[in-house]
Protein backbone atom coordinates (compact mmCIF):
# COMPACT_ATOMS: atom_id res chain seq x y z
CA UNK A 1 0.00 0.00 0.00
CA UNK A 2 1.32 3.44 -0.85
CA UNK A 3 2.08 5.60 2.15
CA UNK A 4 0.28 8.52 0.51
CA UNK A 5 -2.92 6.60 0.86
CA UNK A 6 -2.66 6.06 4.59
CA UNK A 7 -5.28 8.73 5.13
CA UNK A 8 -7.68 7.19 2.64
CA UNK A 9 -9.76 4.56 4.35
CA UNK A 10 -10.38 1.72 1.96
CA UNK A 11 -14.10 1.33 1.74
CA UNK A 12 -16.17 -1.46 0.40
CA UNK A 13 -18.45 -0.54 -2.46
CA UNK A 14 -21.48 1.03 -0.81
CA UNK A 15 -23.38 2.09 -3.85
CA UNK A 16 -24.51 5.58 -4.72
CA UNK A 17 -26.50 7.55 -2.22
CA UNK A 18 -28.33 4.44 -1.39
CA UNK A 19 -29.24 2.87 1.90
CA UNK A 20 -28.28 -0.78 1.78
CA UNK A 21 -29.66 -3.49 4.00
CA UNK A 22 -27.45 -6.25 5.34
CA UNK A 23 -28.68 -9.31 7.21
CA UNK A 24 -27.71 -9.05 10.87
CA UNK A 25 -25.92 -12.30 11.69
CA UNK A 26 -27.45 -13.37 15.04
CA UNK A 27 -31.04 -12.20 15.01
CA UNK A 28 -31.59 -12.20 11.28
CA UNK A 29 -32.78 -8.58 11.52
CA UNK A 30 -31.56 -6.16 8.91
CA UNK A 31 -29.57 -3.11 9.83
CA UNK A 32 -28.98 -0.11 7.64
CA UNK A 33 -25.69 1.29 6.52
CA UNK A 34 -25.62 4.61 4.72
CA UNK A 35 -23.08 5.41 2.01
CA UNK A 36 -20.69 8.11 3.18
CA UNK A 37 -21.29 11.15 1.04
CA UNK A 38 -18.02 12.81 0.04
CA UNK A 39 -19.10 15.47 -2.44
CA UNK A 40 -22.61 16.84 -2.76
CA UNK A 41 -23.57 19.50 -5.26
CA UNK A 42 -27.05 20.99 -5.36
CA UNK A 43 -28.68 23.45 -7.76
CA UNK A 44 -25.30 24.37 -9.22
CA UNK A 45 -25.25 27.18 -11.77
CA UNK A 46 -21.96 28.20 -13.34
CA UNK A 47 -21.30 31.52 -15.05
CA UNK A 48 -18.69 32.79 -17.46
CA UNK A 49 -19.31 36.52 -17.35
CA UNK A 50 -22.95 36.97 -18.34
CA UNK A 51 -23.18 33.46 -19.82
CA UNK A 52 -24.80 30.76 -17.70
CA UNK A 53 -23.03 27.54 -18.74
CA UNK A 54 -24.55 25.16 -16.18
CA UNK A 55 -28.21 25.52 -15.25
CA UNK A 56 -28.80 24.09 -11.79
CA UNK A 57 -27.48 20.54 -11.51
CA UNK A 58 -27.22 18.07 -8.63
CA UNK A 59 -24.31 15.63 -8.33
CA UNK A 60 -23.31 13.32 -5.48
CA UNK A 61 -20.17 11.23 -5.03
CA UNK A 62 -19.81 8.78 -2.15
CA UNK A 63 -16.52 7.81 -0.56
CA UNK A 64 -14.49 5.36 -2.60
CA UNK A 65 -16.63 5.73 -5.70
CA UNK A 66 -15.73 6.71 -9.22
CA UNK A 67 -18.56 8.85 -10.59
CA UNK A 68 -18.46 10.00 -14.20
CA UNK A 69 -19.82 13.16 -15.76
CA UNK A 70 -20.26 12.43 -19.45
CA UNK A 71 -21.21 14.91 -22.11
CA UNK A 72 -20.42 16.29 -25.53
CA UNK A 73 -18.23 19.33 -26.24
CA UNK A 74 -19.56 22.47 -24.60
CA UNK A 75 -21.95 20.59 -22.27
CA UNK A 76 -20.53 22.29 -19.17
CA UNK A 77 -18.28 19.51 -17.78
CA UNK A 78 -15.16 21.63 -17.24
CA UNK A 79 -17.32 24.48 -15.95
CA UNK A 80 -18.71 22.11 -13.30
CA UNK A 81 -15.22 21.03 -12.21
CA UNK A 82 -14.09 24.67 -12.16
CA UNK A 83 -16.98 25.46 -9.82
CA UNK A 84 -15.78 22.72 -7.46
CA UNK A 85 -12.17 23.96 -7.49
CA UNK A 86 -13.38 27.56 -7.14
CA UNK A 87 -11.98 29.12 -10.28
CA UNK A 88 -15.27 30.31 -11.75
CA UNK A 89 -18.39 32.11 -10.49
CA UNK A 90 -21.09 29.72 -9.37
CA UNK A 91 -24.26 29.59 -7.29
CA UNK A 92 -25.91 26.69 -5.48
CA UNK A 93 -24.28 24.55 -2.79
CA UNK A 94 -21.09 22.49 -2.89
CA UNK A 95 -20.37 20.34 0.15
CA UNK A 96 -17.25 18.30 0.82
CA UNK A 97 -17.42 15.95 3.79
CA UNK A 98 -20.77 17.62 4.58
CA UNK A 99 -19.11 21.04 4.96
CA UNK A 100 -19.97 23.86 2.54
CA UNK A 101 -16.93 24.84 0.47
CA UNK A 102 -18.61 26.95 -2.22
CA UNK A 103 -17.56 30.26 -0.67
CA UNK A 104 -13.95 29.25 0.05
CA UNK A 105 -10.87 30.42 -1.86
CA UNK A 106 -9.19 28.01 -4.26
CA UNK A 107 -6.26 27.31 -1.86
CA UNK A 108 -8.60 26.57 1.03
CA UNK A 109 -10.57 24.07 -1.09
CA UNK A 110 -7.27 22.45 -1.97
CA UNK A 111 -6.41 22.17 1.74
CA UNK A 112 -9.84 20.61 2.38
CA UNK A 113 -9.02 17.93 -0.18
CA UNK A 114 -10.08 19.04 -3.66
CA UNK A 115 -7.48 18.23 -6.35
CA UNK A 116 -7.75 18.33 -10.11
CA UNK A 117 -5.92 16.89 -13.07
CA UNK A 118 -7.01 19.60 -15.53
CA UNK A 119 -8.24 19.33 -19.08
CA UNK A 120 -5.35 19.29 -21.55
CA UNK A 121 -3.07 18.00 -18.75
CA UNK A 122 -1.39 21.37 -18.21
CA UNK A 123 1.86 20.22 -16.65
CA UNK A 124 4.56 22.86 -16.14
CA UNK A 125 6.33 22.22 -19.45
CA UNK A 126 9.62 23.92 -18.51
CA UNK A 127 9.98 22.15 -15.18
CA UNK A 128 11.28 18.64 -14.68
CA UNK A 129 8.96 15.77 -13.82
CA UNK A 130 10.27 15.88 -10.24
CA UNK A 131 9.72 19.64 -9.88
CA UNK A 132 6.17 19.26 -11.19
CA UNK A 133 5.54 16.70 -8.48
CA UNK A 134 7.08 18.92 -5.80
CA UNK A 135 4.49 21.58 -6.74
CA UNK A 136 1.71 19.04 -6.26
CA UNK A 137 2.98 18.28 -2.75
CA UNK A 138 3.23 21.92 -1.64
CA UNK A 139 0.99 21.19 1.35
CA UNK A 140 3.16 18.32 2.56
CA UNK A 141 4.57 19.11 6.05
CA UNK A 142 8.19 18.13 5.26
CA UNK A 143 10.40 17.81 2.20
CA UNK A 144 11.67 14.43 3.40
CA UNK A 145 8.13 13.08 3.57
CA UNK A 146 7.32 14.51 0.16
CA UNK A 147 10.44 12.93 -1.39
CA UNK A 148 9.37 9.60 0.11
CA UNK A 149 5.84 9.94 -1.28
CA UNK A 150 7.15 10.83 -4.73
CA UNK A 151 9.40 7.75 -4.66
CA UNK A 152 6.36 5.66 -3.72
CA UNK A 153 4.50 6.97 -6.75
CA UNK A 154 7.53 6.20 -8.94
CA UNK A 155 7.09 2.57 -7.90
CA UNK A 156 3.50 2.81 -9.09
CA UNK A 157 4.44 4.66 -12.30
CA UNK A 158 8.02 3.59 -13.15
CA UNK A 159 8.02 5.57 -16.39
CA UNK A 160 7.82 8.80 -14.36
CA UNK A 161 10.70 7.67 -12.14
CA UNK A 162 12.85 6.92 -15.18
CA UNK A 163 12.12 10.40 -16.49
CA UNK A 164 12.34 12.30 -13.21
CA UNK A 165 14.86 14.84 -14.58
CA UNK A 166 13.23 15.23 -18.00
CA UNK A 167 11.35 18.44 -18.80
CA UNK A 168 7.65 17.72 -18.48
CA UNK A 169 6.93 19.39 -21.82
CA UNK A 170 8.98 16.71 -23.58
CA UNK A 171 6.96 13.80 -22.17
CA UNK A 172 4.49 11.95 -24.38
CA UNK A 173 0.80 12.77 -23.98
CA UNK A 174 0.16 9.65 -21.90
CA UNK A 175 3.15 10.35 -19.67
CA UNK A 176 2.02 13.94 -19.16
CA UNK A 177 -1.41 12.67 -18.17
CA UNK A 178 0.18 10.29 -15.67
CA UNK A 179 2.23 13.19 -14.30
CA UNK A 180 -0.81 15.47 -14.00
CA UNK A 181 -2.73 12.75 -12.11
CA UNK A 182 0.20 11.98 -9.80
CA UNK A 183 0.73 15.68 -9.12
CA UNK A 184 -2.91 15.95 -8.05
CA UNK A 185 -2.63 12.85 -5.85
CA UNK A 186 0.33 14.28 -3.94
CA UNK A 187 -2.02 16.69 -2.18
CA UNK A 188 -3.80 13.67 -0.61
CA UNK A 189 -7.18 14.64 -2.04
CA UNK A 190 -10.46 13.68 -0.45
CA UNK A 191 -11.77 13.86 -4.00
CA UNK A 192 -9.79 13.65 -7.22
CA UNK A 193 -11.26 15.49 -10.21
CA UNK A 194 -10.09 14.20 -13.59
CA UNK A 195 -10.97 16.31 -16.63
CA UNK A 196 -10.92 14.18 -19.79
CA UNK A 197 -7.79 12.19 -18.95
CA UNK A 198 -8.04 10.12 -22.15
CA UNK A 199 -8.48 13.06 -24.51
CA UNK A 200 -6.16 12.95 -27.52
CA UNK A 201 -4.44 9.73 -26.50
CA UNK A 202 -3.97 6.68 -28.73
CA UNK A 203 -6.41 3.86 -27.79
CA UNK A 204 -3.68 1.76 -26.16
CA UNK A 205 -2.46 4.67 -24.00
CA UNK A 206 -6.02 5.66 -23.21
CA UNK A 207 -6.66 2.10 -21.99
CA UNK A 208 -3.63 2.45 -19.71
CA UNK A 209 -5.04 5.64 -18.20
CA UNK A 210 -8.32 3.86 -17.46
CA UNK A 211 -6.31 1.03 -15.83
CA UNK A 212 -4.71 3.66 -13.60
CA UNK A 213 -8.14 5.04 -12.67
CA UNK A 214 -9.33 1.52 -11.82
CA UNK A 215 -6.20 1.00 -9.73
CA UNK A 216 -6.63 4.29 -7.86
CA UNK A 217 -10.19 3.34 -7.09
CA UNK A 218 -9.04 0.00 -5.68
CA UNK A 219 -6.67 1.98 -3.40
CA UNK A 220 -9.70 3.82 -2.03
CA UNK A 221 -9.47 7.09 -3.97
CA UNK A 222 -12.75 8.91 -4.54
CA UNK A 223 -12.97 10.17 -8.11
CA UNK A 224 -15.18 12.50 -10.13
CA UNK A 225 -14.25 11.75 -13.73
CA UNK A 226 -15.18 13.91 -16.70
CA UNK A 227 -15.13 12.02 -19.99
CA UNK A 228 -16.41 11.78 -23.51
CA UNK A 229 -15.30 8.17 -23.91
CA UNK A 230 -18.54 6.70 -22.57
CA UNK A 231 -17.67 3.05 -23.15
CA UNK A 232 -14.40 3.19 -21.19
CA UNK A 233 -15.83 5.46 -18.49
CA UNK A 234 -18.81 3.22 -17.83
CA UNK A 235 -16.46 0.31 -17.18
CA UNK A 236 -14.58 2.09 -14.37
CA UNK A 237 -17.54 3.94 -12.85
CA UNK A 238 -20.09 3.26 -10.16
CA UNK A 239 -22.49 5.95 -11.28
CA UNK A 240 -22.89 8.09 -14.38
CA UNK A 241 -24.37 11.53 -15.01
CA UNK A 242 -24.93 12.71 -18.57
CA UNK A 243 -24.69 16.45 -19.05
CA UNK A 244 -26.21 18.14 -22.10
CA UNK A 245 -26.39 21.90 -22.60
CA UNK A 246 -25.66 22.51 -18.94
CA UNK A 247 -28.37 20.17 -17.66
CA UNK A 248 -28.34 16.55 -16.48
CA UNK A 249 -30.22 14.66 -19.19
CA UNK A 250 -29.85 11.20 -17.66
CA UNK A 251 -28.17 9.44 -14.77
CA UNK A 252 -27.93 6.01 -13.23
CA UNK A 253 -25.75 3.28 -11.85
CA UNK A 254 -23.03 2.49 -14.40
CA UNK A 255 -24.29 -1.04 -15.07
CA UNK A 256 -27.61 0.41 -16.28
CA UNK A 257 -25.74 1.79 -19.28
CA UNK A 258 -24.55 -1.63 -20.47
CA UNK A 259 -21.32 -1.45 -22.42
CA UNK A 260 -21.77 2.32 -22.85
CA UNK A 261 -21.98 2.09 -26.63
CA UNK A 262 -25.50 3.53 -26.84
CA UNK A 263 -24.37 6.43 -24.68
CA UNK A 264 -21.32 6.84 -26.88
CA UNK A 265 -23.51 7.06 -29.98
CA UNK A 266 -25.80 9.54 -28.25
CA UNK A 267 -22.87 11.78 -27.31
CA UNK A 268 -21.33 11.70 -30.75
CA UNK A 269 -24.67 12.16 -32.47
CA UNK A 270 -24.57 8.76 -34.20
CA UNK A 271 -28.00 7.17 -34.51
CA UNK A 272 -28.19 3.45 -35.12
N1 LIG B 1 -13.98 31.30 -20.11
C1 LIG B 1 -15.13 31.23 -20.76
N2 LIG B 1 -15.74 32.34 -21.23
C2 LIG B 1 -16.93 32.28 -21.86
N3 LIG B 1 -17.60 31.14 -22.09
C3 LIG B 1 -17.05 30.00 -21.65
C4 LIG B 1 -15.78 29.98 -20.96
N4 LIG B 1 -15.50 28.69 -20.65
C5 LIG B 1 -16.51 27.97 -21.13
N5 LIG B 1 -17.45 28.73 -21.72
C6 LIG B 1 -18.70 28.28 -22.35
O1 LIG B 1 -19.41 27.50 -21.41
C7 LIG B 1 -20.00 26.36 -22.05
C8 LIG B 1 -19.52 25.09 -21.37
O2 LIG B 1 -18.12 24.96 -21.58
P1 LIG B 1 -17.25 23.85 -20.88
O3 LIG B 1 -15.83 24.13 -21.18
O4 LIG B 1 -17.65 23.74 -19.46
O5 LIG B 1 -17.74 22.55 -21.67
P2 LIG B 1 -17.16 21.07 -21.67
O6 LIG B 1 -18.31 20.16 -21.46
O7 LIG B 1 -16.04 20.97 -20.73
O8 LIG B 1 -16.67 20.93 -23.17
P3 LIG B 1 -15.39 20.13 -23.78
O9 LIG B 1 -15.78 18.70 -23.87
O10 LIG B 1 -15.23 20.75 -25.14
O11 LIG B 1 -14.22 20.37 -22.88
C9 LIG B 1 -19.62 26.45 -23.50
O12 LIG B 1 -20.67 27.02 -24.21
C10 LIG B 1 -18.42 27.38 -23.52
O13 LIG B 1 -18.32 28.10 -24.72
MG1 LIG C 1 -14.02 20.56 -20.96
Overview of this structure, please?
- 40% of the residues are buried.
- 32% of the residues lie in helices and 28% in strands.
- The strands form three sheets. It has a six-stranded mixed beta sheet, with helices on both faces. A four-stranded antiparallel beta sheet has the order 4-3-6-7, with helices on one face. Strands 1-2 form a two-stranded antiparallel sheet.
- It has one domain: P-loop containing nucleotide triphosphate hydrolases (Rossmann fold, 3-Layer(aba) Sandwich), CATH 3.40.50.300.
- It has helices spanning 77-85, 106-112, 129-136, 143-156, 158-162, 173-185, 203-218, 230-236, 261-268, and strands at 19-23, 30-34, 37-48, 51-62, 66-70, 89-96, 99-100, 114-117, 191-195, 223-227, 239-244, 247-253.
- The radius of gyration is 19 Å and the shape is globular.
- The model is unreliable at 1-32 (pLDDT under 50).
- It binds adenosine-5'-triphosphate and magnesium ion (MG).
- Residues 77-78, 119 line the site of magnesium ion (MG).
